[in-house]
Amino acid sequence: MFDDVRKLFEQVPDAKMRGYKVGRFSFNVKGGRCEACQGQGTRKIAMHFLPDVFVECETCEGRRFNRETLEIAYKGKNIADVLDMTVEDAVSFFERHPRIHRVAKSLLDVGLGYVQLGQPSTTLSGGEAQRVKLATELAKGEGLKEVLQRTLYVLDEPTTGLHFEDVRKLIGVLDRFAEQGHTVVVIEHNLDVIKCADWIIDLGPEGGDGGGTIVAEGPPELIVRAPQSHTGRYLAPLLEGSRRAG
Q1: What would you measure as the largest C-alpha separation in the chain, in angstroms?
Q2: pLDDT score, position 140
Q3: Tell me: the pLDDT tens digits for 13-45?
Q4: Measured between alpha carbons, how far is 167 from 230 in angstroms, rounded to an integer?
Q5: Using one digit for the tens of pLDDT, what is the confidence trace for 121-171?
Q6: Residue 31 belongs to what domain range?
Q7: With 70 as the cut, is the pLDDT of residue 88 above it?
Q8: Is the CB of residue 110 less than 8 Å from the CB of residue 153?
Q9: How many CB atoms lie within 10 A of CB 242?
Q10: Which of 33, 49, 101, 137 could form a disulfide with 27 if both were Cys (CB 3.0 to 4.6 A apart)?
Q11: Which positions ≥6 away from 137 have C-beta within 8 Å?
Q12: Is 198 domain-assigned?
């Protein structure tokens, strides 16, 4: 997505007049970035026998780019302002740019609306990083009349740390993958996800050394009737509630 953002800034009249190219708006190469911090926005202070300390760069004040680059604005925002945007803000800001909007919307759909566009990947949790990958894959298929290649997606506990509303969004995304013709395999303990599965393989009967055996397999309605399935016992009230609501 950021490649498209840089190309957008390259097309700003002021950028054209100054002869700025795409690389000017990257903090990974010389030219437009702050050289004092090499585009990091922070500077490292070696503490010798203690862990290194990172402080805000006093030259760019954490903006990553030099003054000349920050003078180029699109819709009143410079490149540093865009990096500071949350995904949710970016969805509306780039509404007229389909390629950027599609990726931002996919990130929002997987519950990452609070993440900043320029947030380093090293600061993301395992679950967040997994959902970024999901959003990237989802964006590839959006807008295509026909999916060119079927894919098998294997997810390991994708709901870890998620609010129940974000779990609902994630289920919606997984449904869209299935609708596009892909196959999704999820290792999960969250009952809200399990009840939406087309086919469940329940391992047990216990955890750890007491498990590893297929206790039951089939659609959720069959799992709840398996006497040895602990999953089925806890799943039954949820399915009953769904039937009443329906």
Answers
A1: 74
A2: 82
A3: 999 999 999 999 999 999 999 999 999 999 998
A4: 22
A5: 888 888 788 889 989 888 887 655 555 688 899 998 888 878 888 889 899
A6: 1-84
A7: yes
A8: no
A9: 12
A10: 33
A11: 151, 153, 177
A12: no
Tokens of 129: 């990083």
Percentage of residues of the chain with pLDDT beyond 90: 69
Residue 241: the pLDDT is 77
- Residue 210 domain flag: no
Q: Is the peptide bond before 98 cis (omega within 30 degrees of 0)?
A: no
pTM (predicted TM-score): 0.78
Query: Residue 87: which H helix or E strand, with range?
Result: helix 87-93
- The domain total for the chain is 1
Q: Go through 168-191 and write b for each residue having 16 or more CB atoms within 10 A of its CB, e for each that does not.
A: ebbbebbebbeebebebebebebe
Q: Is residue 149 part of a domain?
A: no
CATH assignment of the domain containing 72: 1.20.1580.10
The answer, yes or no, to whether residue 207 has pLDDT greater than 70, is yes
pLDDT of 53 higher than 80: yes
Q: What angle do CA 126, 220, 191 make, to 5 degrees?
A: 35
Among candidates 210, 213, 179, 186, which has minimal Cα distance to 200?
186
Q: Are 23 and 83 in contact (CB under 8 A)?
A: no
